[in-house]
Write a structure and sequence with these properties.
The structure holds two protein chains of two kinds.
Chain A (H helix, E strand, L loop, with lengths): L3 E6 L4 E6 L8 H10 L8 E4 L2 E8 L2 E7 L5 H19 L4 H6 L1 H11 E2 L2 E2 L4 H7 L12 H12 L15 E14 L5 E15 L5 E6 L3 E2 L12 E2 L2 E4 L5 H7 L2 E3 L4 E10 L7 E10 L3 E10 L6 E10 L4 E8 L3 E5 L4 E10 L3 E10 L14 E8 L8 E7 L7 E10 L3 E3 L2
Chain B lengths: L8 H10 L4 H16 L8 H6 L6 H14 L4 H14 L5 H14 L2 H15 L4 H17 L1 H6 L2 H8 L5 H21 L15 H11 L4 H13 L5 H11 L8 H15 L5 H17 L5 H17 L19 H14 L5 H11 L5 H17 L4 H14 L2 H17 L8 H6 L7 H13 L7 H10 L6 H17 L5 H13 L4 H16 L1 H8 L15 H8 L5 H5 L14 H10 L5 H21 L14 H10 L1 H7 L30 H6 L14 H13 L2 H15 L1
Helix pairs in contact in B: 1-2, 2-4, 4-6, 5-7, 6-7, 6-8, 7-8, 8-11, 10-11, 11-12, 11-13, 12-13, 13-15, 14-15, 15-16, 17-18, 17-30, 18-20, 19-20, 19-21, 20-21, 20-22, 21-22, 22-24, 24-26, 25-26, 26-27, 26-28, 26-29, 27-28, 28-29, 32-33, 33-35, 37-38
Classes of the chains: A alpha+beta, B mainly alpha.
Subcellular location (chain A): Cell membrane; Membrane, Coated pit
InterPro entries (chain A): Adaptor_comp_med_subunit, AP2_Mu_C_sf, AP2_Mu_N, AP_mu_sigma_su, Clathrin_mu, Clathrin_mu_CS, Longin-like_dom_sf, MHD
Organism (chain A): Coprinellus micaceus
Chain lengths: 426, 741
């Protein structure tokens, strides 16, 4: 599949190069540098030159590049690049030029382990960490049985878990994290509102625990099958970590699995119906003549007054020819940021039910040279609300069964946030 | 120690450190060697020194040395022999990680001399009790095949691989499948004709199928993709079996890895062809929709791959996502390539009920910053108008709003789009013509100018000052781009035929200028033809120039049905992303335009346009190939030809001629764009692109009388279109034209 794997820095210097096949020369890296890195107008993540295709993903100051000469599986290649990025983050804490340079020997070890002859192999972080470590391992250090165990695990039916995990205190943490995406028209109509949900689990459970996971009673998972009342939580689609038995889910809708040890993403879901929008933003923006724009923005917190939205940041665009902007706020801090043409309004905390106001006047230069009308990019809102889910999803139970039938403690947290996708046009 | 560079410099220092008595120092030196190797410095001179460090208990150091060996084995084969002993010893190590590492590395060395030593350890590794070693060995067979196929066959490794499909470990099964598939495709690429009966072919039989279905649910995500790929190649015996496969694969739609989801979609789409039960078919299609939509919350690159595939799926089964248009609305911060793809899909999903939402969305996009995206949004408005008759008026209103913004590129694109709307709904929106003409001075792009001129010519009798407007363009005739000249020429002739009294002077002038002062043979030829037509038989001129034209429409597919079917079987792959068959961009066994045409002719009843699109893609692929290939083989074709010969070579690839003719890939500005296309009747039976039409500017007159003034020119063409093969057709009119002058 993959013929080669490269990591480039921003200047196009090769940090890592691993050729899996011999159908081309090392100089292929130069081609990428010329065609992509030094080209300011790259309009596609895949570039095919001659019969060689370059797939690239940019992350921080790096290009992660996969090269192939075959009709490769494009989805797989990109998923693999992102998997590599995740593995690196988990190993080095971050992925950037420095991290790769300082750990290049380890990086080579990793990419050889997760990809052989261009075919991706086991890439479960937890398993990898059991035999590829940051400290050098002397092979005598691992007795042969130990590595037998590792290898069995790396290839076994439950490749994501070691059999001999032991904890004094058996705990499982479940985090339900929802990202709300909103696109609201200038008239206040909701163009689209959807929720990307992730259920993250941190399992510190001994042995080989069998878990069963239950969500809301009134949960409609395949919306198109109908059913469900008005207040039921409807998930358009959900996807599971490979530990979840998909057949069982398909047949009986139960989520059962043997969890990996430590942190993993149990489930991803998507919901588009009955999305509760925690913050309502009502902008009134008027252009006074050609020299001034007035802003009046009201933000209402639409949730129980026991909860609070934190780290609220509104980014309110101003016309490109703005010379100065005066912002008036009673809550939080607001500032005009000329380099990005936005006014940034930061509110550390909004209690449920509260309503806050922002007003500003932007002065424009009158000597307009371009006839281009102001595109009015949308207002972008970021926030976090703890113990609130936009979809209404609730975890009803998490049952753990294990041979030794120990007691386990489970914790559930909810968080709804917006991250660049909560946009209100005006 | 015999061959050694000067006793100074970086390499010398490294070699000293590599021979150091301290373990840490040696290891550090190896790391430095690898680092130099990565940045492309030549450290092959250190081969013997590095090799000494291979025999070690330190696994990390061992891996580093192996990495070095992999890199330089090809250039230093005689030295690699020294390493063989260690490899063979390692392959017997009690530690399975070491055994697997030795096998993995030996397979990567790619030196002829070491290969012979690989067979015995590999034989053992394939039967190893440890699954980790077995799965590594399985892939190693594919590596060996890549290097020396005879060895694989002689040693019976293929039979062993076939046995390993029954392995108890799902990961071993997955890698075995990957290896067999790799060998299969390598052998078919080398000898495409004899592949079917050769022993290297990987035929999936019913027992294998069942084993794969079992392994599918247990193995790792990447393994699932490999197995799903193999399932896609399986030929189901009957509809029962197809249904069974679909039902077993459907749970994979819920997998977290996007590539597994797409691979599962592919398998279901392939086996769906044989599913007879309509209710099951509906259910499968319904289940497919949510996972596809979910892919849109993946990282942008994966999203893009998903979008391109959704586009293909919609061409095959437009009902899949019929109620989901809103999820394709662009986010302000989506990358451009994602936005453009979403636009296309939105237009595909448009119908009467959601068109209002779509239009307000498109209008919004048209005010964004990126020029390319804005233009595409405007174009999408036009496509919507052509697609949905009920919404055409709303679209026209939106376009008028956009023209009112007076942003230059928006206005120009809107005018191009208006032309298409006129072509679809002739004489319906004449009320907007004055608004369009008011922007005449703003236009600086040839396409926009040409479009406006076409509109003026088409409605010359309804526009009072049409002759004044056209005079402007006649005045600047020689400075305009050729498409504008051609269009001006035709519009003036139209004007003359519609209002003969007032425009005698202008037509004379334009014909004079075009025949005397113009560099382009196309323009000159067209002018001569008009001139003679007008002077010999004005009635014939009328029926040619003002003939009725069929309205345009948006094709449901952008690729030929046969190609679409092939691409559906390749979902997730590069071919599906490019919407081109893999042969067009992969080195071996390239598919030429001729082959494509053959394929197209087989599908005789296809729409002409889609065939031509397919041809264009192929030729575009070939051209970029010739320009950009940096492969090993020197380019041999085309280099020696020049002038007329070159032109003829190009013309013998019909679609290439279209490219020269400046054809855009947008279905709206189809093929002959506004110039030709006047009458398609004589040609429409064969899927032949029409450079000749482009040259004439008006195609053949429907009533072409062979004995008329143009008989000598026309006859061979008309008869050619019905009898001779397409390629010849392209050259004949060209020769005739040359003969005329």
């Amino acid at each position: 599949m993959l013929s080669a794997f490269f990591i480039f820095n921003q200047k196009g210097e090769v940090l890592i190069s691993r050729l899996y096949r011999t159908d081309f020369k090392r100089s292929i890296a130069d081609v990428f540098r010329i065609q992509v890195v030094s080209n300011s107008d790259v309009r596609s993540p895949i570039i095919t030159l001659g019969s060689t295709s370059f797939f690239h993903v940019r992350t921080n100051n790096l290009y992660v590049v996969a090269v192939t000469k075959t009709n490769a599986n494009a989805a797989l290649v990109f998923e693999f690049c992102y998997r590599f990025i995740n593995i690196s983050k988990s190993y080095f804490g971050k992925i950037d030029e420095e991290a790769i340079k300082n750990n290049f020997a380890l990086v080579y070890e990793l990419i050889d382990e997760i990809c052989d002859f261009g075919y991706p192999q086991n890439s479960e972080i937890d398993t990898l960490k059991s035999y590829i470590t940051t400290e050098s391992v002397v092979s005598q250090g691992i007795p042969a049985e130990e590595s037998s165990k590792i290898t069995t695990q790396a290839t076994g039916a439950i490749s994501w878990r070691r059999p001999d995990v032991k904890y004094k205190k058996n705990e499982a943490f479940v985090d339900v994290i929802e990202t709300v995406n909103l696109s609201m028209s200038a008239k206040g109509n909701i163009l689209r509102a959807d929720v990307d949900g992730h259920i993250l689990m941190r399992a510190y459970l001994s042995g080989t625990p069998e878990c069963k996971f239950g969500l809301n009673d009134k949960l409609v998972i395949d919306k198109s099958q109908g059913g469900g009342g008005g207040d039921a939580v409807e998930l358009d689609d959900c996807r599971f970590h490979q530990c979840v038995r998909l057949n069982e889910f398909d047949a009986t809708r139960t989520i059962s699995f043997i969890p990996p040890d430590g942190e993993f993403e149990l489930m991803k879901y998507r919901s588009t119906s009955n999305v509760k929008l925690p913050l309502r933003v009502i902008p009134t923006v008027t252009e006074v003549g050609s020299g001034q724009v007035n802003y009046d923005i009201i933000v209402k917190a639409n949730f129980s007054n026991k909860l609070a939205a934190t780290n609220v940041v509104l980014r309110i665009p101003t016309p490109l020819n703005t010379t100065s902007a005066e912002c008036k706020v009673a809550t939080g801090k607001a500032k005009y940021n000329p380099s990005e043409n936005v006014m940034v309004w930061k509110i550390p905390r909004i209690q449920g039910g509260q309503e806050i106001v922002f007003s500003a006047v932007a002065a424009l230069t009158t000597s307009v040279t371009t006839r281009q009308v102001w595109a009015r990019p949308p207002i972008d809102v970021d926030f976090q609300v703890l113990m609130f889910t936009s979809s209404g999803l609730i975890v009803r139970f998490l049952k753990v069964f294990e041979k030794s039938s120990y007691q386990s403690v489970k914790w559930v947290r909810y968080l709804t946030k917006a991250n660049g996708g909560y946009q209100i046009r005006f | 120690m015999s061959i050694r560079g000067p006793r100074k410099g970086e390499n010398y220092e490294l070699s000293v450190d590599l021979n150091s008595e301290y373990r840490e120092k040696r290891k550090d030196a190896i790391k430095r060697v690898i680092a130099s190797m990565t940045v492309g410095k030549d450290v092959s001179g250190l081969f013997p020194d590095v090799l000494k460090n291979m025999q070690t208990d330190d696994l990390e150091q061992k891996k580093l040395v192996y990495l070095y060996l992999i890199n330089y084995a090809k250039t230093q084969p005689e030295l690699v022999i020294l390493a063989v002993n260690t490899f063979v010893k390692d392959s017997d190590d009690p530690n399975p990680l070491v055994r697997a590492l030795a096998i993995r590395t030996m397979g990567c060395l790619r030196a002829e001399k070491i290969i012979d030593y690989l067979c015995d350890p590999l034989q053992k590794a394939l039967r190893d009790e440890n699954p980790y070693v077995r799965k590594t060995a399985a892939l190693c067979v594919a590596k060996l095949y890549d290097l020396k196929p005879e060895l694989v066959i002689e040693n019976g490794f293929l039979e062993q691989l076939h046995e390993m499909i029954s392995d108890s470990n799902p990961m071993v099964v997955a890698n075995t499948v990957a290896a067999l598939t790799d060998i299969h495709s390598a052998s078919t690429a080398n000898q495409p004709s004899t592949s079917s009966d050769s022993s290297t072919a990987f035929h999936i039989t019913t027992p294998i199928l069942n084993k794969l279905l079992v392994a599918l649910n247990e193995c790792s995500e990447w393994g699932r993709v490999a197995i799903l790929n193999a399932l896609g190649r399986y030929q189901a015996q009957d509809d029962k079996e197809s249904e069974h496969i679909c039902e077993r694969v459907v749970p994979q739609f819920q997998h977290i890895n996007g590539s597994v989801v797409l691979a599962a979609v592919k398998v279901v789409m392939i086996h769906l062809r044989k599913v007879r039960r309509e209710e099951l078919e509906k259910q499968l299609i319904r289940k497919m929709a949510p996972p596809l939509v979910t892919l849109l919350s993946s990282p942008p690159e994966v999203q893009w791959v998903a979008l391109r595939n959704i586009n293909l799926l919609l061409q095959k089964r437009p009902e899949i996502l019929s109620n989901e248009m809103r999820v394709f609305f662009c986010k302000y911060n989506d990358p451009l390539y994602v936005k453009v793809e979403k636009l296309d899909i939105m237009v595909r999903l448009a119908h009467e009920r959601n068109v209002d939402a779509l239009l307000s969305e498109l209008k919004e996009y048209a005010s964004e910053v990126d020029v390319d995206f804005v233009r595409k949004s405007v174009k999408a408005i036009g496509q919507t108008a052509v697609k949905i008759e009920e919404a055409a008026e709303k679209c026209v209103n939106v376009l008028l709003d956009l023209i009112a913004t007076r942003v230059s590129y928006v206005v120009q694109e809107a005018i191009v789009v208006m032309k298409d709307i006129f072509r679809k709904y002739p004489s319906t929106y004449e009320g907007v013509i004055p608004t369009l003409c008011a922007n005449l001075d703003e236009l600086d792009e040839p396409e926009a100018k040409a479009s406006l001129i076409w509109i003026i010519g088409e409605y010359a009798n309804k526009i009072e000052n049409a002759d004044d407007l056209l005079t402007l363009f006649v005045d600047s005739f020689t400075e305009e781009a050729y498409p504008v000249q051609l269009q001006t020429l035709t519009a003036v002739v139209k004007l003359f035929l519609k209002k003969p009294d007032s425009s005698q002077g202008i037509v004379q002038r334009v014909l004079n200028t075009a025949t005397k002062d113009c560099d382009s043979p196309d323009v000159r030829d067209r002018a001569y033809i008009y001139w003679r037509l007008l002077s010999m038989d004005p009635a014939a001129a009328k029926s040619v120039v003002l003939s009725h034209r069929p309205p345009i429409s948006i094709p449901r597919t952008t690729v030929a049905p046969a190609v679409l079917e092939e691409l559906i079987g390749e979902i997730g792959s590069l071919a599906s992303v490019y919407h081109k068959p893999a042969e067009t961009f992969i080195g071996k066994g390239r598919l030429g335009a001729d082959a494509m045409q053959k394929r197209a002719v087989e599908e005789a009843d296809e729409s002409q346009l889609s065939t031509q699109k397919a041809l264009q893609t192929v030729v575009a692929g070939q051209q970029s190939e010739n320009l950009l290939d940096f492969g090993d083989e020197p380019s041999t074709d085309g280099g020696g030809l020049s002038g007329l010969a070159a032109t003829q070579t190009m013309l013998s690839q019909p679609a290439a001629a279209n490219l020269i003719a400046g054809t855009s890939s947008n279905p709206l500005d189809d093929l002959v764009s506004i110039f030709g296309n006047v009458s398609m009747q004589p040609m429409s039976a064969t899927p032949t692109p029409a450079p000749s039409q482009a040259a004439f500017g008006f195609g053949q007159p429907p009533s072409a009388a062979p004995g008329g003034a143009f008989g000598g020119l026309m006859t061979p063409t008309v008869s050619g279109s019905s009898t001779s093969p397409p390629t010849q057709q392209q050259q004949k009119p060209e020769e005739d034209l040359l003969g005329l002058f």
